[in-house]
Every structure is written in C-alpha cells, then in structure tokens.
C-alpha cells in the first residue's frame, strides 16, 4: 500500500469487498470479529469438508488443526516512528530489520475436529448438508489465533519463527480500520435524513473541541437563553403561570408549606441533545430552503462521503492508532463522470490535510486510505502508481501493483510511458475487461459493433449453447493504431485475451543504392 492513498480496481466479484470485510472484522475495534461461512474461499470450503471426512481415520497424534482464513499484515517502520506500541511485536533487535509481521489465523483447533466429525457423520458425504451445518455453528468451532512472525531482512521473507499474541487491544494500538461501505445510507426518500444523522455523529465525536470557538460561544449563549425561556415556561414566575404550576400546587397538599416540598422544573439543554434530534440539513436554492431529500442521489452520495470522512477523522483524533486505515467502497455510486473526476482529484488533498493536522499535534499516527472502484473515470484521473489490480484466476484472486508493470517493460521505458499515458487519456476500462479487441481506427470502430451483432444473429444463443453472444461478453474495443505490439506486456499483466485487427498494408520493395 502507498503511504497516503491506494486504489483497488478490478471486475465485479474479484475479491475487493472480501478484503475490506476481513480487515473490518479483524481491525475494527467495534467489530465482534465473527466469521460467516461465506467468508471462506469457495474451493477451501470443499477442502475443509474433505478434511473433516478423514478425521475419524487419523490418530490423535497425527491430527492437526484446519485453517479457514489466514491474514498477514506487513508493517514497515523507520527511525522517525514511535516504537512505543510496536516494540512488543519485534522478534529481534537486528537494526537491519524494520518490519513487523502480524498473522491472524481462523482455525478449527484439533480438540474441535472430533466433535465436528461426530456431529456430521450422518451426512459425511453430503457437502450441501455440511455447508448448512457450518453456516449455523461456524463460530462454535472456529477460533482466532494471533502471532507476531519473524522477518529475514536479507531474503526479505517471513521466517518460521513466531510468538503468540493474547491481547487484541495491543494490536488495535498499532492498526485500526474504519470505513465507508458501498451499502452506506444514501436515499432521497422523504422520511430519510442520512446526512443530518451523520452531521449529528460528527458533532458528538468532536465534543465541540474542533468547532470554531466563536461559533461554539454563540451556540452556548443561545442554549443559555433557551434554558431560561423554557424554565419560565415550565415552572412559571410571579407574572406568568407555568405548564407545571397546577401540578406543583397539588404536590404542596402532601408536603404542606415546608420549603423542602417546593418543586421547580428547569431546562437543561445540551449541544448533543439539540443536534441529536433537532437538526435537519437543507440546501439553499436562491432564497428558498430545500430538504436534503430533494437533491439527487449523486450529490447525496458525494456529500455523504465527505461527512463520513470528517466523522471518521474525528473518531481517529479521539482514539488514534499508529496506523489508521480508512476504506471508501465504490465512491462512484449514483454520480456522473464529472463528479467522479472531482472526487478523485480532491480526495487526496482532503486526506493530506487531516494527516498534516495529526502531525502538527505531535501525534505519530498516520492515515492510509483504500478506495475500491469499478469506475474507469476515477481510474483514468488517478495516479497510476496508486493502483492495485485484482483479478480472479482459477478460483483464487491475484493482486498486482501497477508499478510492477514498469519492470515488465524493462529497458523499453518509452513504451511504458506511452501505455501509461494512453490509459490516462482513453481506455482505463481495460482494468475491468475480460477481453479486448485492438483496432487501427475509426472505420473498424464504426463497423465492429455491427459485425458482432450480425455474428450473434447468425449464431442464436440458447441454454444448451456454450458460447455467450459477443455483445453480452465483457469485451473492450480500443484504438491502438499501428502500436498494438506496445500493449502486449500490459495485456499479459492484466491477464486478458486479445484480438488484434490490423490493415494489410501494401509493401513496396525498395532497392537501396549505396
């Protein structure tokens, strides 16, 4: 990951959300860290099933735990960082070693294997029944084990050395994860006020400390005046009867004229009480005020993300970790391309401002951000050095950093620069394609969709057919002119199939006279 912002890109169902889900469950302090069966890789579920079937045939001395999920976090530190929270995770005192490795393993311990085998023996060969069983009782059998792992600075690899960690609270001092999920509350229904609710949370987390002092003084003065007015309305005075005056008079019957029986109700408003249920966000249009629900979903989504970021930052300032990881999932929801460009151009500056504020306060904490996206518009306007590419391959997920493509081009840095610039200007959609057709120019671009349609018509698709219609496939068509060969390493990097359509240009033999 980059120190400030990393962008995870890839097609649907390639593991982007799964990564965030695992991070959230382990590193979010408010998470119960409970797994669900669906969190485990599809192929690995079958392996667990097969391993459980064999448990009854294995002697106790040879029985070993079964792994469900394994997560390793590599954290690099320098002399500029505070060692206060990480020193307990250091495996040696080698000055060349500037990594700590945290490993989290969800396992079925050996003592639970016999129990599962016994409970599932009646359907030992039925995988679907086994899955139903595990979905109900997964956390009864799985447990998390946390280790600090050794690191070899010479080979730059993890070693077999490990130390058990008992307290998750010590891990939370090093890293915490907070996020804005794709299923965030964004709605323009009349009874929904998601932005108003977020603004309330923002104030609660700030406790008024980060609010402009003049504005805060104005708020306190208004509350004091409101308290005086409400107290007079509740209890009354010499000139006016209050709402509860008649009740107080009846109470006196039971307490006589003793001053100890004198009752009064005083208003005690607080900023939090006022903001919790009595504030509504409006949009100003000319001289009129419109409720937040009257705005489009795109703007609601964008404003909501900014409010959520500010709220998360307030939470970080209250309870910072050494590394504060924020994720934003699919910020492009409901927004048109221009809004997406605005978002990615400005988000880095916003995050930098908050990082700088932490540093100015003398805090050693840092903020790192992960953004997942399907938007070619966001990708085209980002820094390609920030990209992490996810791709499904034979039941597993492969991740690559875009920077590694530079190494693939080797000495051909002009070719790498050309491809990088081309992606920025034209075809970032390649990151989300299964296949690509390279063409030379406008003629092919105009004709090819029609040709593909004719092919689909002449080969009608039906349920027994194994071939999907061309227009239903995830195919990108890009104009590469006579430079398709320059893109070969990019296509290999992305792992996508390529068809190159090129002109058969006539070649004249030329006689060279020395």
UniProtKB/TrEMBL annotation:
Organism domain of life? Bacteria
What sequence ranges are listed for the domain Endonuclease GajA/Old nuclease/RecF-like AAA?
A: 2-379
- Which residues fall in a coiled-coil region? none
Pfam families from the entry? AAA_15 (PF13175), OLD-like_TOPRIM (PF20469)
Domain OLD protein-like TOPRIM residue range list: 431-505
Q: Which Gene3D superfamilies match?
A: P-loop containing nucleotide triphosphate hydrolases (3.40.50.300)
Q: What is this protein called?
A: Uncharacterized protein
Which species?
A: Streptococcus oralis SK255
């Amino acid at each position: 990951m980059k120190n400030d912002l990393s962008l995870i890109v890839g097609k649907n169902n390639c593991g982007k959300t799964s990564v965030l889900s695992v991070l959230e469950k382990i590193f979010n302090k408010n998470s119960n860290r409970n797994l669900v069966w669906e969190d485990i890789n599809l192929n690995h579920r079958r392996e667990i099933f097969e391993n459980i079937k064999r448990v009854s045939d294995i002697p106790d001395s040879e029985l070993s735990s079964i792994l469900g999920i394994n997560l390793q976090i590599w954290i690099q530190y320098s002399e500029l960082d505070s060692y206060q929270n990480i020193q307990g995770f250091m495996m040696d005192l080698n000055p060349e070693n500037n990594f700590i490795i945290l490993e989290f393993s969800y396992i079925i311990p050996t003592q639970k294997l016999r129990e599962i085998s016994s409970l599932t023996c009646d359907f030992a060969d039925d995988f679907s029944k086994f899955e139903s069983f595990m979905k109900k009782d997964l956390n009864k059998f799985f447990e998390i084990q946390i280790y600090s792992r050794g690191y070899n600075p010479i080979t730059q690899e993890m070693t077999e050395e490990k130390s058990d960690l008992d307290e998750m609270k010590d891990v939370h001092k090093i890293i915490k994860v907070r996020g804005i999920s794709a299923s965030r509350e964004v709605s323009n229904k009349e009874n929904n006020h998601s932005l108003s609710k977020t603004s309330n949370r923002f104030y609660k987390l700030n406790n008024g400390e980060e609010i402009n002092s003049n504005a805060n003084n104005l708020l306190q003065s208004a509350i004091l005046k409101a308290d005086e007015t409400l107290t007079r309305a509740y209890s009354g005075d010499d000139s006016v009867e209050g709402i509860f005056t008649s009740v107080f008079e009846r109470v006196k019957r039971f307490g006589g004229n003793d001053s100890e029986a004198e009752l009064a109700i005083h208003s005690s408003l607080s900023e939090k009480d006022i903001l919790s249920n009595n504030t509504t966000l409006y949009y100003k249009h000319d001289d009129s005020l419109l409720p937040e629900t009257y705005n489009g979903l795109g703007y609601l989504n964008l404003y909501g993300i900014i409010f959520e970021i500010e709220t998360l930052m307030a939470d970080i300032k209250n309870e910072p970790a050494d590394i504060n990881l924020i994720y934003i999932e699919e910020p492009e929801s409901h927004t048109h391309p221009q809004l997406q460009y605005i978002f990615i151009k400005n988000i880095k500056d916003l995050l930098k401002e908050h990082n700088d504020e932490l540093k100015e306060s003398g805090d050693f904490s840092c903020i790192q951000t992960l953004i997942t996206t399907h938007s070619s518009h966001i990708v085209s306007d980002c820094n390609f050095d920030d990209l992490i590419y996810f791709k499904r391959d034979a039941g597993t997920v492969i991740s690559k950093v875009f920077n590694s493509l530079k190494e693939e081009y080797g000495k051909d840095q002009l070719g790498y620069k050309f491809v990088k610039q081309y992606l920025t200007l034209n075809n970032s959609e390649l990151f989300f394609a299964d296949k690509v057709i390279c063409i030379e120019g406008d003629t092919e671009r105009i004709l090819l969709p029609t040709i593909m349609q004719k092919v689909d018509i002449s080969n009608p698709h039906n349920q027994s057919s194994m071939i999907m219609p061309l227009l239903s496939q995830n195919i990108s068509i890009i104009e590469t002119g006579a430079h398709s060969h320059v893109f070969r390493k990019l296509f290999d990097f992305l792992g996508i199939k390529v068809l190159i359509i090129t002109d058969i240009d006539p070649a004249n033999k030329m006689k060279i006279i020395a």
